[in-house]
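Person: Show me a sequence?

Helper:
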Amino acid sequence: MSANLFERHLLAGILIVLVMAGVILVVVKLLGFGLGRLPGDIVLRGRGWTFYFPVATCLLLSLLLTVVINFLARWWR
């Protein structure tokens, strides 16, 4: 496979993953799941500012992505 064709496939794959992630986030938001409001997420509010750091949400998404990527890697072998 030439480098140009590989780059096109890589770009298409990244685009598909980003679109799927966006659709999943919209669906999760519409269904009202508490993603982003988990215990362990840090929210600091002051006068005119809010700082939000989703620690628990990041850990959960990291775990889910690790499982999915490992499953796909084993499936493609």
User: Anything to note?
Assistant: The two ends are 19 Å apart (CA to CA). The first strand starts at residue 42 and ends at 46.
